[in-house]
Design a protein that fits this description.
The chain is about 10% helix and about 30% strand. It is mostly beta strands and about 425 residues long. The strands form seven sheets. The chain has a five-stranded mixed beta sheet with strand order 7-6-15-10-11. Strands 8, 9, 12, 13 and 14 form a five-stranded antiparallel beta sheet that branches. It has a five-stranded antiparallel beta sheet with strand order 21-20-24-25-26, with no helix packed on it. It is globular.
């Protein structure tokens, strides 16, 4: 006699226990909860009065801080030898959820430390191929109409560890931590350029920062006139000094280094300026030894943040696979998840809002049977671009690069529940 599937039983749609994403829209959440390891007793008992209920709590503070019990939710950082402020700090995505990165956990990349800028003395100069050179104070910019954009910023060197021949024995934060997403508020750059009057010969801008490295990049004028912002606020508060206070350039979807921090000068030019920051670095070294220059947009990419290395699996049963997907080309259209190393795929659920050039959270139900598995995610954006496998990316570009790695990441799950970084 043929066995029939119960209506409440989740449907498996890909190998090794991946379930239909619509499971979340039915009784799936309750089913996951009912199989979790919950502390139960035979009879309900009255909850005890804990010590913190017997004394007054702490007083108000000028600026709120996280709980002391979440002190592991922190950035990791490293400085170049012989320096204190040249290097990077990384966001702990495996310990976060949602899509917005808290300001105190936003990744940092500095070329010569964080300048201590007096906002009253800081100026933004717009000059070059314009009819009227202009100088703006912070107070003057605050009088202009402002807009907000939720956008990710990703260092071009994020995930570069995956160019290595062997998989690095690390997890999400060391590999993918040079990515963050925030709500940025400021003045449209196009508004200021229109006020300056653009010369017909202008095709590019040079954006320069006020740090002691003189960090500067060339940007196509078309991008500056499209969705670029002079960002003054980050998640509702003034931009942090580590992220460009008192103002920074925001170029949604473009590699992080182009979103110049501590912005002090914009010069309109007829051609790229070919600065040291865009010739000695931030080019893609191809397999034939040639360098691919001026690749601005960060290609579609995704990573599973839970489970991931450092977050061991619990008991077999129903679990949620979740992670982040993003693309500098536009919106994320689809994310697929595999539990068998890419042999089969299941479409994940995308959590709203799904915005262009912003991080999107994906979720997929998974019935882990306690056996070995290899977890992967693959993103597709609304331009039709599909995130490539690591092997395809290496075949196309070679393994000597340092920038724009967006190949698929693989996590292996052992029978013990330990999760490791592998190549599949």
């Amino acid at each position: 006699m043929r066995k029939t599937k119960r209506a409440s039983e989740p449907e498996q749609v890909a190998g090794n226990g991946l379930l239909d994403r619509r499971f979340f829209l039915t009784a799936g959440a309750a089913a996951i909860g009912s199989t979790a390891l919950i502390d139960k007793t035979d009879a309900a008992e009255e909850l005890p009065v804990e010590p913190w209920m017997k004394t007054p709590g702490s007083p108000f503070t000028p600026y709120g801080q996280p709980s002391k019990h979440t002190n592991m939710v922190a950035r990791t950082f490293a400085s170049a030898p012989g320096t204190t402020g040249t290097g990077a700090s990384r966001t702990p995505h495996h310990l976060l959820d949602g899509t917005i990165t808290p300001n105190g956990l936003h990744f940092e990349r500095h070329h010569n430390g964080i300048p201590d800028i007096n906002p009253e003395a800081h100026r933004l100069l717009i000059h070059g191929l314009v009819k009227r050179p202009l100088v703006f104070t912070l107070d003057a910019l605050m009088r202009y109409p402002m807009e907000s954009r939720i956008a990710f910023i990703e260092c071009a060197g994020n995930s570069s560890l995956l160019y290595q021949k062997d998989p690095a024995p690390v997890g999400v934060q060391p590999i993918h931590g040079l990515l963050s997403c925030a709500e940025w508020t400021g003045v449209r750059l196009a508004t200021l350029l229109d006020e300056a009057g653009i010369d017909p010969g202008a095709q590019w801008i040079l954006a320069e920062g006020a740090d002691s490295s003189g960090m500067s990049r060339s940007v196509p004028l078309a991008k500056a006139m499209d969705d670029a912002l002079i960002a003054i606020y980050q998640n509702g508060e003034p931009v942090r000094p580590s992220n460009g206070y008192p103002m920074r350039l925001l170029l949604p979807g473009y590699e992080g280094n182009m979103n110049v921090k501590w912005l002090r000068r914009i010069k309109l030019t007829a051609a790229p300026t070919m600065t040291k920051d865009e010739t000695s670095k931030y080019t893609i070294l191809l397999a034939d030894g040639k360098s691919l220059q001026f690749c601005f947009a960060q290609e579609a990419k995704s990573v599973i943040t839970r489970p991931s290395p450092g977050l061991s699996m619990g008991a077999p049963g129903l679990h949620e696979i979740t992670g982040l997907a993003w693309s500098g080309y536009g919106r994320i259209a689809k994310v697929e998840v595999s539990a068998d190393g890419g042999a089969s795929w299941a479409q994940a659920a995308l959590q709203d809002p799904v915005l262009p050039m912003a991080v999107t959270r994906f979720r997929s139900p998974w019935r882990w049977d306690g056996g070995p598995a290899v977890l992967q995610s693959r993103a597709k954006d609304d331009s039709g671009y599909v995130q490539p496998s690591r092997s395809k990316l290496i075949a196309d570009r070679g393994g000597r690069g340092a920038y724009h790695f967006n190949g698929i990441t693989s996590w292996s799950v052992a029978e013990s529940g330990e999760v490791k970084h592998v190549y599949a």
